[in-house]
Structure formats: C-alpha cells, structure tokens
Amino acid sequence: MSTLKRPSSGSPRKGDLFELVLGIGIVLLVLFIGSFFRLRLDLTSEKRYTLRPATEELAKGLEDIVYVKVYLTGALPADLERLSQATRDLLDELRVHAGDNIQYSFIDPSESTDQKTRNEFYDQLQKAGLTYSSIRLREKAGYSEVIVFPGALVTYRDRTVPVQLLKTQLRTPDADIVNRSINNLEYELASAIRQATSMRRPRIAMLTGHREASGMSVMDMVNAWKELYDVEEVTIGERIDALSRKVEGMNYRVNDYDALVVAKPDSTLAARDLYVIDQFVMNGGKVLWLVDAMNANLDSLRKNQFSIATPLELGIDELLFAYGARVNKDIILDQSCAPIEIYTQPYGNQRKLERFPWYFEPVLIPQAEHPIVSNIDPVHLRFASTLDTIGTDSIRKTILLTTSPRSYAQRNPVRISLNVVEMDMGFEKRSTPHLPVAVLLEGPFTSAYRDRLPANFTQDPNVGYREQGKPTAQLVISDGDVIINRVDAQKGMYYMLGFDRYANAKIYGNRELLMNAMNYLLDDRSLISIRSRTILLRQLDPERIASERTRWQLVNIAVPVLLSIGFGILFNLARRRRAAAPKAS
Question: Which of 52, 78, 474, 489 would suit a FRET pair with 406, their CA atoms being 20 to 30 Å apart?
Fold first, then answer.
C-alpha cells in the first residue's frame, strides 16, 4: 500500500525551497484578502484605544476638514514621548471615523538651528495661546535645557483653537502628570473640535454686585469655562432686563444667558434682583449656586485664636426653598479633612510649625454614580454647611456629595478655634454619617413669587411674568469656597483649582466637579462621558526592582539564548530524522 506524499524530484533542498515559496505565496494571498477588511481589537482592560461613542459621533459628523498641528515632537524625555505617541494614536483613531476630515501633522518648534528663527516661532505659538515647558535633558557632557510646547492648534475653516495637551503649572512634568494628561487627551481634543466647529457658544453670567468671589480667586475655573463657553460678569442692579429681554409678540421673556453662577456672595441680594433670578429660572435658565450659610473664614484666626461664625443673611433662602433645597445655618466638622499648619510651643529659640487635621475643611470622596461626580478626585470644602431637600413633587432631587461616616454639624452660632486640632472631637459617639452638601434639582420649577405679586404687575405684558417654569436644572453646593483657587499675591499668579500647597500638586477634584456641573447643566453630557475614562499608570515596584534586579537581568539575558539553542537543536534533530527516513518506492 502506498501513501500520497509531496512529489519530489531532485535534492531535499529543492523541496525546502518549494515549501518556502508556497508559504510566502499563502501569506501574500492572506494579506491581499485582508486588505479588503478592517479588523481592530482593543485588548487593553481600560479600552484606551477605543473612542467614546460621543467622540465617534463628533468625528462622523464633521462637514469639513479639521486640521490639527501638534507641536509635541522632537527631542523629548520618555514621559513626553509617551504623551506624543498617545496623541498620534488618538488622531489615527479619529481618522478611522472621520476619514479625510481629520488631518494632522507633528511639528518640532525647535527644529531650526537658528536661535532667532526659533524664538520668533516660540513667540508665534505663545500668541496663538500655547504655553511652553522648560525641560532638562541629561547628556554625556552634562545637562541641556530644551523648550517644548506640549500643545496643538485645531483649525476648522477660519477658526483656530489652542489645546494644551499637558495640564500642569509645573515646569518639569512627572509621570503622574503625564498620565493625567493622557487620561484627559480625548476630552481635550474632542472639546477643542467641538469649540472650533460649533456655530454658537453658550453664555454664562457670573453674578456680581454682592461681593461675590471674583478676579484671580476664581480665575482658573473661569478660564476653564471660557474654553467652551462665553463667560462674562453681570450686575443685576435691580434691572429687570439684566438677564433676559422681552421680545415683541411673545408672552414671556427670553433669556440672554444660558446659565448663571452665584459664587460666594456675602451681602444681601435686593428683592428685585431675586425676582430677576427667579424669572431667569422660569424661562429655562440654569443656575449654579455656590453659597455660604455662615460667615466663617480663616482670616479672623490669624490675629485671634478663635472666632464666632454667625449666619449670612443673603436673602436667597425663600428662593431656594421654593425650588426644593435649604442651606442650613450650621458648619460641618469632618474627620476626613484637609490639614492645617500651626505654630506650636517654641522649641529652643524657634517656634515649631506642625501639621494637624483641620476638621472645618472636609475632603469629600464622591459616592454617587451621577456623571457630574463620577470618577473625580476628592472634593475640598471650607466651612461647608448641611443641605436639606424640600418635598416638591415636580422636582427630581439628586444628592451628589456627602460627608464621611464620621462627621457632624454644629448649629449657629459656631465657635471656630485653632484648639480643635488638639481636642477629642468625639466623632465615634456623635457622628451623623453622610451629611449632604451638594444637591442637583431638575424639573419644571414653580416661581417663588407665586401668589405674592399684585395682579397689575403679573398681567403687565411688558413684564412677561411666568409662574410655572420650563424644565431646567439647578445645582446647589453649600460652600462658596469650592470655586476658590489659591492665589500667590506676591508673584501675581494663581494656581489650578484643586492645588494643595502642602502636597505641592493638584490633588482635589474641585475643578472637574464644577466643569462637569456646567457641562451637565448646559446639556454637554457627552463631554462628561469622555472625561470620565481612566487609563491606569502601571508603574514598576521600586522595592522589587532593587531586590530582584539580578534575577530578572539573568532571565532577560539567559532565557532568550537558551530558547534559541533549544529550538536550533530540535530543528536539526528533525532534519536528521527526516533525512534518515526510508523513501517510498
């Protein structure tokens, strides 16, 4: 009985050559067929190479070419090189859905050998809105200083939007900062594309005239909002048309702004101002309330060791009550809190500066699954108060932030003393867990002035009074300091909101909280979903690196060599066995 075998004529070498040519032909055929199909698999656990549905929809909806010029290239340290590659990967992924409507190029701003030409190019990039970082690179001869622009310019038709890819105020970025920037990369590019292609930008009014927080103290958050929205300060001044206008032929007023921010007022709002805000809400306006119930602050503790906090009479209590919320006249103490540095008893001839937990500044870890607080860092508050929700059937109330299990509130008046750092506050015995400090109100609100105004006023067609409001949303946070960024008056600069001077880094999620809140209020829900993604930085364990260094060096060097030798021996044995096998007759 004979068996079918490959026809052979000549030496075994010709047979091997035939198998090689046949294998190459099969591979080329598979590649040719595969060119008609596109198969893309993202095997990473956090799906880092997969765009969010909102970004895919944005890319597919482009009507013209978006050109992205990225200036993060050239001689870069490893961390920035990783950010540059992540940017390239993201742009390639956008091209999958947008096709030729997404085009990009990487430009090295330091490519020119002429110093004057480089400086002129640097000036152009700074005028366009990009900031630089100065990086020290180690070389054989020592260290060299390199200027890098970790940013991009997104151009759509006649509009150009700058994008800062590296989000830091530090001159030398570390791995954590770069990883945070990679986390936000899709959001930054997607929001820039939306900003460049959007025909209309929503308008935000920052209320003034009642000693609200303003200027450099809120500069970081205002600038962050300005990347997507038009932001301007508005003083009502008892003017009925400060936030809206009456259009001829319409029964009700039309808002001139999409959202209103009331940030830490500390004086009473006039009754007419409150009416204007009420009608702004009735006509569909969104409001972000960042208000203090008590007049507590640290400034009074610098001269004295204690102060007495009393209620602030802002005049907004009835307004919020009608909408479904109440800010209580108390102050929260929380065991989960930020530190404070206090000079203790002198040691020798010098006073000693020590760090203690400061219970009046709660650090809240978001527990709710709402997109506003999903996946953000802990939120830092100062002298916050508790919130209550009021039974209003038409309004949906969502608690977004609460205190830790070990917290309680002190009722008015509250004695604020530095001595609390040395006292037993009794959190184990008297705590009231999870006190609410932020609530989202959604639905059609009823006017706080219902049945309170004379008929001749409400029926005046020039007034346009509205009793039952359009569906809208408001967010109430019982702390005005949530928006306050740290300011260095001597240097004339401010720090990113959430920056902690003790850690010398941004560790709190206040910025993301308020950005998410405004995105949600203005129906930019897709931007929240993009920002919520997280890419983990899987760093090596430095202790294991030191203790197991020799073993892993041997493994990396010896194992490939041994495997190569083993495969070589097996291959030769197989060839000898094949050559020694008797040929079929």
Answer: 474
